[in-house]
Structure formats: structure tokens, C-alpha cells
Amino acid sequence: MQNTDELERWNQRYSSEEYFFGLEPNEFLCSQSYRFSPKQKVLALADGEGRNGVWLASLGLDVLSVDISPIALEKAQHLAASRGVTLTTEVADLSTWRWGIEQFDAIIAIFIQFASPDLRRLIFEGIKASLKTGGLLILVGYTPKQLEYKTGGPPYIENMYSEHLLRESFSEMEFLHLEEYEAILSEGVGHSGMSALISLVARK
User: Fold this and answer.
1) For residue 10, which of 51, 68, 65 has the smallest C-alpha distance?
2) Which end of the chain is more exposed for a tag (fewer CB within 10 A), N or C?
3) What span, in angstroms and rounded, lies between the C-alpha atoms of 86 and 81?
4) pTM higher than 0.85 for the full model?
């Protein structure tokens, strides 16, 4: 579970004027823009300094960006203002956050691999509960091979994703896309270099 130490760790990571994961949205997320319609309600999980949430808002979506770090979300609001979009932010510890039922048209989970297996189960259950029927989950993460590259993400194999893990975790959903691949990331200093990735799009 997340705790005070976790909060301090993320606040420290985001305390620089520089945006740790850069200003631009995740490349795979951008490739899925055709799946959205204006005014849809979208949840951006652990959105940090807002690079993905702000981009989603630029599509005309109603975006709630949540993160454990108030420092990160303050930077997200600055980024939103600089891009001329509105972003709703909420400080949230995902181990205790109230997800709600059938709340969102889409949920975006980009590199949320701070979560240990126990917390990950809670998050995945929250995702499934809070998506509307017909709603989409778009997820990007690292596979175990990422531990060889060491170009981002935590050094814990148990936090990584595989096709089997995701198929099992979201078995009641319709899989529209699921792929393991390798690509060079350039997302600030946080994700930089050749990476072992997995991407998922699934419909409730």
C-alpha cells in the first residue's frame, strides 16, 4: 500500500521545474485518439505532471487527472493553462481512493507500475467497477524484460505486466488490442531509451 514515504518519494521526484516524464503524451496513447469522442468523461490514473491528461483534455474530453503527489498536479494545472485547456485534478492514494461505479467512458493507465501485486489487484478491480458499460481501458506498461534495459520503471519483476497477466486480470472485458513489443522511449528523463513494453485496449 502507498504511505507517507511513497508520497514523499513522488513529491521529491516532481519537485524540479523540469517535467520528469516530459511534456508530451505517451506515443501509444496518441495512436488511440480515434477511439475518443468529445465530452466523454475520462480518468487519467497516476497522471503525474499531466502530460497525458492535458493531451486528452485537448481532444475536448472531460478529464479527471489523479495522482498521489500534489506537487505533480500543480504542475499539471500549469501545463493545462499553458495549453489553453481545462483539467480537473484530484490528489488520490489509489490504495484508498473511492472509485465509484460506472463513472467513466475511458480510463487511461500509462506506466502505473509503482503498484505491487496487492495494490495492482485493487486498482484493476477499481478500473473495472468505475468504467461505464462499453467504456475503454487504455493501458501501457513494462514487461519483465524491462529489467534488462533499466530505462524506466521500478526494479521489481513482480510489478511488471505480461499478456497472460492482463488477459487474466481483465478476462470479462473485450480485448481490442494487446501486444508486447520493444521500442525506444523519449519521455523526459523518466523513460528514456530502448524499452520492453506492453499495450492494451479493452472494452467493458
Assistant:
1) 68
2) N
3) 7
4) yes
